[in-house]
Amino acid sequence: MGCAGMVIGLGDRAMQNTPLNVMQVVSNLGIGGAQEVVRTLAEHLAEAGCPTVVCTFQDGPLREEIERMGVPVEVLRDRRYSVLAFPLFVLDVLRLRRSLAGVVKKHHIDILQTQLLGSLDFLVLTLRYRTNLLVFWTFQNSRFELRADKLPRHKWLLGPKRWAHRQLYRLAARWVNGFIAVSDDVKTALLETIGPIPDDKITVICNSVDVRRYQQPVDRACIRRRLGLPENARVMAVVATFKTQKGHRYLIEAVPQVLSQFPDLHILLIGDGDLRGKLQAQASALGLDGHIHFLGTRSDVPDLLAASDCFALPSLWEGLPMALVEAMASGLPIIATEVSGTKQVIVPGESGLLIPPGDVRQMEEAITRLLSEPARARAMGAAAQLRVEAYFGAKKQAQEHIALFYRERSRAG
Three-state DSSP class for 12? Predict the structure, then answer.
């Protein structure tokens, strides 16, 4: 069942149980959607009575923010060797397992939930051996299988590794306590990729946001001045890592035609990544240097969204993008591609516009439509905000997780 249709109640029995200690394990604490899920979950699980620890293999800017909330963060040394150096790889994995087990013991962990771990999901699962620990794997993307860009030096390994991962997932499905999919489309992708999984092993819990963070009053004029933007400019925000998946190049290609009608349009590209240089070169070649602003990774995203008039996400594929939900919580009208997750969040024509991925002409038309109909755009932004408040709030997400954790604890005895 999709998130928008769920009604979750913890139940008296669950609420009377001893609080469960939860550990969120994430690959890194850089700025990103999954990391924001971890931050939000850690805060709201703790508020709901489930003490939470965050464990990561790479430090990052979110660590300070998480610790400021009173949530402990453990940073472990990541793997150093690939499977090609097999003896060292095995020693590395055993060392990492001991470190994880030590953190579990130190914090008396009952529930272990992974985010963005890939093959390390299987290592985490081995911690269940001879323990009462429950393990849940979270899948943030409909394309969760190993991709070619993750093996830049050994592309010949792609096929064998994909096959091995698929077999391991099928085998591990018997022992993992649950798969958490962030959208209905991600659940479908899991079933198609891994094969038959008992229905009660997959739970759809949509990514959500702390709505309070995106509804604080701000001085829009001041923020625009700091960015060097005209106070009355039309401003579109895009929050996404610069990688192929996010489809920035199609948005940039659409801008010149839009500028012929709306020369005061400015686009804020918030984020960073491997494709930054190529995207900057593309923007320059199209004469867009004064209209497309590369802001890099920012910690003031709520303020930047509040200072914008609309939001675009031109992704080629997704799971359920946090940036999209954040923009909706800010009351912005949305243009997004119709990929997994986005069509679960947006009601087309009511809270945003959906277009086919990679379609430059329809991107041009969608931007032009929003800018041409400001009253309708504002109405869509208001509807988007109400939809997030009703279905994608952080408290609801935490309650759904807690209900799942207690249900599986009860099953495990």
Answer: helix
Q: Could you identify the residue written with the tokens 């249900």?
A: 407
User: What is the pLDDT, as a whole number, of residue 16?
Assistant: 45
What does the alpha-carbon distance between residue 268 and residue 310 come to, in Å, rounded to a whole number? 11
pLDDT of 235-267, one tens digit each? Answer: 999 999 999 999 999 999 999 999 999 999 999
Q: Name the helix (H) or strand (E) containing 72.
A: none
Quick check: helix, strand or coil at residue 270?
strand
Instruction: Let me know: does 121 contact 136? Beta carbons within 8 Å.
Output: no
Model pLDDT for residues 98-139, shown as the tens digit of each residue: 999 999 999 999 999 999 787 788 899 999 987 889 999 999
Query: In sequence order, which residues have a C-beta less than 8 Å from that of residue 351 and are 6 or more positions away?
Result: 328, 333, 334, 380, 383, 384, 387
* Conformation bin of residue 130: beta by default, left when phi > 0, alpha when psi is -120 to 50: left
344: its two tokens: 């679960």
What's the residue count for the chain? 413
Separation between Cα atoms, residue 302 and residue 329, nearest integer Å? 9
Are the C-beta atoms of 59 and 93 separated by less than 8 Å? no
pLDDT band at residue 9 using 50, 70 and 90 as cut-offs = very low
Q: Are the C-beta atoms of 303 and 223 separated by less than 8 Å?
A: yes
CA 402 remoteness from chain centre: 20
| Interatomic CA distance for residues 353 and 243, integer angstroms | 23
Whose tokens are 């070649």? That residue is 285
In order, the DSSP letters of 76-100 are: PPPP---TTSHHHHHHHHHHHHHHH
Q: pTM for the complete prediction?
A: 0.85
Domains along the chain? 3-208+393-412 (3.40.50.2000), 213-391 (3.40.50.2000)
**What gap in Å lies between CA 254 and CA 288, rounded to an integer?**
11
Which tokens sit at 185? Answer: 């489309």
